[in-house]
Design a protein that fits this description.
The chain is of the alpha/beta class. The chain is 27% helix and 15% strand. The chain is globular.
């Protein structure tokens, strides 16, 4: 673990940059820190191709003191337009090595400690995937859930593009990641709070507002439902849902930091691509029970 960050530093979060869209690439070009000591947490879905992922992370790493990345499902796709055809674990490992070349912290690296305002906290980027345990109402198994989803036409593209090789299934890969990550988090010093950065929320409650609740199947796992207390979580940073907001669950702040697709952010009143401040806490975040 490392101890860095100046007294005026801020810890920011962003996710779901989706720079395959020209409008979103322009948003990334406009992203800058407010001080030389600012850190940026990137909670996945930068892009679908390795070249685009590299381009965005290299740009951000050249501007922020530290960039911390957790992969989303889109980075793990073996997309037909990507020249890198690696699948599953091999693709993830390739992205980790690329990030290390850029100086970007990954889930495979020692967890850095934010010692700036609001710290110290261990900042832990996670790669956990999902296991189809967040099923639609009335469905008891993955098979029933998928049948229901196909009936509604709401099926995640992961079913066709995200390969778990060499694991037999995505849920097997998820369980292995959860087990290994829990061991690492449990080894952190007693009493040190954490900021956990994962593409998916650790708890199901943020998915309650989805227009298509069946999509929750591809939004995490019940295995992490108690992690916000088990691992002394100060703030849980996530993306994926494309619903940027703050919620509070059992006294813990959950912060979605996603940008989303242009068709989504054009409808919002807030300026697009706004970095969300994680630490020090924003005044509005102190009003527990409120979304914003």
């Amino acid at each position: 673990m490392t101890l860095t960050a100046g007294g005026a530093a801020q810890l920011w979060g962003i996710s779901d940059l989706h720079i395959g869209y020209a409008e979103n690439r322009e948003l990334v070009e406009r992203m800058h820190p407010e001080s030389d000591d600012d850190w940026l947490l990137v909670a996945g879905d930068v892009a679908e191709t390795v070249a685009d992922i590299r381009r965005a992370l290299k740009t951000l790493a050249s501007r922020f003191r530290k960039v911390v990345w957790a992969p989303g499902n889109h980075e793990l796709w073996t997309h037909p337009r990507d020249t890198v055809t690696l699948r599953g674990v091999a693709r993830y490992d390739h992205l980790v090595e690329m990030c290390r070349e850029l100086g970007v912290t990954t889930p495979e690296d020692p967890y850095p400690v934010w010692d700036g305002p609001g710290g110290p906290v261990a900042v832990a980027p996670l790669f956990l995937l999902y296991d189809y345990s967040l099923l639609p109402a009335g469905c008891a198994t993955k098979e029933q859930g998928l049948e229901y989803a196909h009936g509604t036409g709401i099926v995640c593209s992961d079913e066709f593009l995200l390969h778990p090789d060499p694991y037999p299934s995505r849920e097997d890969w998820c369980r292995a990641r959860v087990e290994e990550t829990a061991r690492r988090l449990a080894a952190l010093p007693d009493g040190l709070p954490t900021v956990l950065v994962n593409h998916y929320p650790l708890d199901r409650h943020p998915t309650d507002v989805l227009w298509h609740p069946e999509f929750a199947m591809w939004c995490g796992t019940r295995l992490t439902a108690d992690w916000h207390h088990r691992f002394r979580v100060h703030i849980m940073v996530y993306g994926h849902l494309h619903i940027p907001r703050t919620t509070w669950h059992e006294g813990v702040r959950f912060e979605e930091v996603s940008v989303g697709y242009p068709r989504e952010w054009r409808r919002r009143t807030q300026p697009p691509g706004r970095l969300r401040r994680i630490l020090p806490g924003e005044p509005a975040a102190a009003r527990k029970g409120e979304d914003r």
